[in-house]
Specification:
It contains 2 helices and 7 strands, in the order E-E-E-E-H-E-E-E-H. The chain is α+β, with helices and mostly antiparallel strands. It has one domain: Nucleoside Triphosphate Pyrophosphohydrolase, CATH 3.90.79. A hairpin with an 8-residue loop joins strand 2 and strand 3.
């Protein structure tokens, strides 16, 4: 039996520090190169979405995290210009200072995140996370 083609599976991480700043990366590659985004990325075959979120957080920011809550599932077919992706977003707790890695050109807790136009549908994900808090 053949498997149907389907959307790619991704994860996104929402992390606030004690001062209310949001952890953001600056994308190092297209799409949205140079724009702020939440840490995240593609789920590897054989990996849970929970493990993928913590792995991507570590790869892109150097931070270890602890999952707090599921924020939601984001499946709008046009959310990623590369093709249909479904994202599972998590609220995560972490400590320490971030440092950029993997495909992030920078990683930092950003104080003025409310004024930023984030990549993909990340503004909506952050809005939904705030409703959980």
């Amino acid at each position: 039996m053949s498997r149907p083609a389907g959307p790619a599976l991704t994860v996104d991480c929402v992390v606030f520090d004690e001062a209310g700043r949001l952890l953001l990366i600056e994308r190092g590659h297209p799409p949205f190169e140079g724009q702020y985004a939440l840490p995240g990325g593609f789920v590897d075959v054989g990996e849970t979405v929970e493990a993928a979120a913590l792995r991507e957080l570590k790869e892109e920011t150097g931070l270890d995290g602890r999952l707090i809550s599921l924020i939601g599932v984001y499946s709008e077919p046009s959310r990623d210009p590369r093709g249909h992706t479904v994202a599972v977003a998590f609220l995560i707790e972490t400590q320490g200072a971030p440092s950029a890695g993997d495909d992030a050109s920078s990683a930092a807790f950003v104080a003025d995140w409310r004024t930023q136009k984030l990549a993909f549908d990340h503004n909506q994900i952050v809005k939904d996370a705030l409703e959980l808090l």
